[in-house]
Amino acid sequence: MTRIQAVWYPSWYNLDQSLEVGKESEYALFRCVPEYLKEFGDHVFFNESYGVTWKPTDVRRVKAMVKSITNSVLGAILRIDTSERFDYTITLADGTELLVNAEEEPGKLYERRGGEWVESTRVVDDWRMDVELSLCENEAANQSLNPTGNKPAS
């Protein structure tokens, strides 16, 4: 299987994709990475950032399995759940659950302790998540997701 390294960098406000290690799904990457994200390379997860209006030509879709998610501060991550409207839940490899405010105070962190969310003492100064993807072997499946091609715009 072809593997690629991609970056998930949050825009918060419920604009980001959920990820889970071991889950195969269809993911959207920027076709042409915006200037403010170019430092992360050609493979950056799409989000509706900073007033960008989504258009089908903005994304390239890939069918892939998430092999790993890591963050320079949090370490290995099992899951990033963005499905709650204004909070993201991050599950670390050791099972620790973190709740990240994604609206009023983006990045404010809470930790689940004894079934309760309490303010965390952790400080995350870099929300970049490095994600290893294993692309679907079926090129036809990936091509059908992108009739105009799967490559970033030049």
Notes on the structure:
The chain is mostly beta strands. The protein contains 1 helix and 10 strands. Strands 1, 2, 3, 4, 5, 6, 7, 8, 9 and 10 form a 10-stranded antiparallel β-sheet that branches. The model has no long low-confidence stretch (mean pLDDT 86). The protein has one domain. The longest helix has 7 residues, at 139-145.
Strand element count: 10
Q: Give helix % range.
A: under 10%
On the 0-100 scale, what is the average pLDDT? 86
Radius of gyration using CA atoms only: 16 Å
Order of helices and strands: EEEEEEEEEEH
Global geometry:
globular
Task: Work out the strand percent.
Answer: 35-45%
Summarize this, please?
This protein is about 5% helix and about 40% strand. The protein is mainly beta.
Give structural attributes.
154 residues; mainly beta; 1 helix; 5% helix
Helix-strand blueprint:
Blueprint: E1 3-8, E2 19-20, E3 24-30, E4 59-71, E5 75-81, E6 87-92, E7 97-101, E8 109-113, E9 116-119, E10 129-135, H1 139-145
Antiparallel strand pairs: 1-10, 2-5, 3-4, 4-5, 4-10, 5-6, 6-7, 7-8, 8-9
